C-alpha cells in the first residue's frame, strides 16, 4: 500500500505536490469514487483515475536538459510560448521538469516522471547544491561576496550560506561575472540576492546541479541520465 499522491506521481501524471492539488480539488477517483483525503492509501489492485483518465505506472526515466533562454519551464503555456517539453516530442513518457528556471535563464534542468525523486530534489531540507554563473552590473567587491556567502535577508527571511566567487571582474568596470552556489530554491532567489547587494543580473545560467554538469551538451539538447547518475541523485536525498 502507498499514499495516493505518491501512486499518481510514480505513474508520471504529475509531481507529488501537483498530485495533492488534484486530490484536494476532487479530480481523483479511486475505484470509481472521488477521494479528497491526502492520507488515502491504495494498492496495485485499485483503479485510480485522474481527471477521468486511469493511471498506469510507467518505467521511471530521467533526463538532463540544457534549457535555452526564452523557454518556459512548464509542460504547457496558455500564452503559446515555447516550453521545455517542446524539445521532448520524441519522448513517449509523461515527463515534467524538476523545479524551474526563469524564462530568461538558461542552463541545466532535470526532467522525470519519478514524482518521489522530484519531491525530494525540490525540497530545501535535502540541500542539493545548484551552481549559477551570473553577469551582473558593476564591479562586485570582496565585502559584497562575503554578504552573498553569509546570507542575505530577502522578504524578511535570510538566505542560507552560499558559495560565491568572482569569475571575472569585467574590463570596463561596468559588469562582473560571478559564480554562486546555493541549495535553496526560492522564487528568483539568485536575481534577488544580487539585486540586494546592488548588482542586478544581466544574464544568468545554471551550470551545475549537484554533481551533474552541462558537459557535452549545447543549448536545446538533452540526454538520458545513466543508471549510476540516477543512483547518485537518490543518494543525495536518502542520506538526509
Automatic annotation (TrEMBL):
<dbReference type="InterPro" id="IPR006145">
    <property type="entry name" value="PsdUridine_synth_RsuA/RluA"/>
</dbReference>
<dbReference type="GO" id="GO:0000455">
    <property type="term" value="P:enzyme-directed rRNA pseudouridine synthesis"/>
</dbReference>
<dbReference type="InterPro" id="IPR036986">
    <property type="entry name" value="S4_RNA-bd_sf"/>
</dbReference>
<dbReference type="InterPro" id="IPR020094">
    <property type="entry name" value="TruA/RsuA/RluB/E/F_N"/>
</dbReference>
<dbReference type="Pfam" id="PF00849">
    <property type="entry name" value="PseudoU_synth_2"/>
</dbReference>
<dbReference type="GO" id="GO:0005829">
    <property type="term" value="C:cytosol"/>
</dbReference>
<feature type="domain" description="RNA-binding S4">
    <location>
        <begin position="2"/>
        <end position="65"/>
    </location>
</feature>
<protein>
    <recommendedName>
        <fullName>Pseudouridine synthase</fullName>
        <ecNumber>5.4.99.-</ecNumber>
    </recommendedName>
</protein>
<dbReference type="InterPro" id="IPR020103">
    <property type="entry name" value="PsdUridine_synth_cat_dom_sf"/>
</dbReference>
<dbReference type="InterPro" id="IPR050343">
    <property type="entry name" value="RsuA_PseudoU_synthase"/>
</dbReference>
<dbReference type="GO" id="GO:0120159">
    <property type="term" value="F:rRNA pseudouridine synthase activity"/>
</dbReference>
<dbReference type="GO" id="GO:0003723">
    <property type="term" value="F:RNA binding"/>
</dbReference>
<dbReference type="InterPro" id="IPR002942">
    <property type="entry name" value="S4_RNA-bd"/>
</dbReference>
<comment type="similarity">
    <text>Belongs to the pseudouridine synthase RsuA family.</text>
</comment>
<dbReference type="InterPro" id="IPR018496">
    <property type="entry name" value="PsdUridine_synth_RsuA/RluB_CS"/>
</dbReference>
<keyword id="KW-0413">Isomerase</keyword>
<dbReference type="InterPro" id="IPR000748">
    <property type="entry name" value="PsdUridine_synth_RsuA/RluB/E/F"/>
</dbReference>
<dbReference type="InterPro" id="IPR042092">
    <property type="entry name" value="PsdUridine_s_RsuA/RluB/E/F_cat"/>
</dbReference>
<dbReference type="Pfam" id="PF01479">
    <property type="entry name" value="S4"/>
</dbReference>
<keyword id="KW-0694">RNA-binding</keyword>
Amino acid at each position: 500500500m502507498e499514499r495516493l499522491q505518491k501512486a499518481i506521481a510514480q505513474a508520471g501524471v504529475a509531481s507529488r505536490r501537483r498530485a495533492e492539488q488534484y486530490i484536494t480539488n476532487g479530480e481523483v477517483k479511486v475505484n470509481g469514487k472521488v477521494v479528497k483525503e491526502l492520507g488515502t492509501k491504495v494498492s496495485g489492485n485499485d483503479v485510480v483515475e485522474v481527471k477521468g483518465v486511469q493511471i498506469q505506472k510507467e518505467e521511471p526515466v530521467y533526463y538532463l536538459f540544457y534549457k535555452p533562454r526564452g523557454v518556459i519551464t512548464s509542460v504547457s503555456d496558455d500564452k503559446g510560448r515555447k516550453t521545455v517539453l517542446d524539445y521532448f516530442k520524441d519522448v513517449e513518457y509523461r515527463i515534467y521538469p524538476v523545479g524551474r528556471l526563469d524564462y530568461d535563464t538558461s542552463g541545466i534542468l532535470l526532467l522525470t516522471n519519478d514524482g518521489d525523486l522530484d519531491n525530494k530534489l525540490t525540497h530545501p531540507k535535502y540541500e542539493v547544491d545548484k551552481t549559477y554563473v551570473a553577469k551582473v552590473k558593476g564591479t562586485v567587491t570582496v565585502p559584497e561576496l562575503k554578504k552573498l556567502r553569509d546570507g542575505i535577508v530577502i522578504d524578511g527571511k535570510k538566505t542560507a550560506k552560499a558559495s560565491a566567487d568572482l569569475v571575472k571582474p569585467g574590463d570596463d568596470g561596468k559588469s562582473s561575472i560571478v559564480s554562486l552556489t546555493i541549495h535553496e530554491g526560492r522564487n528568483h532567489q539568485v536575481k534577488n540576492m544580487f539585486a540586494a547587494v546592488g548588482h542586478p543580473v544581466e544574464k544568468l545560467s545554471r551550470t551545475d546541479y549537484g554533481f551533474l554538469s552541462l558537459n557535452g551538451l549545447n543549448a536545446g539538447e538533452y540526454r538520458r541520465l545513466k543508471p549510476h547518475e540516477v543512483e547518485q541523485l537518490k543518494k543525495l536525498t536518502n542520506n538526509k
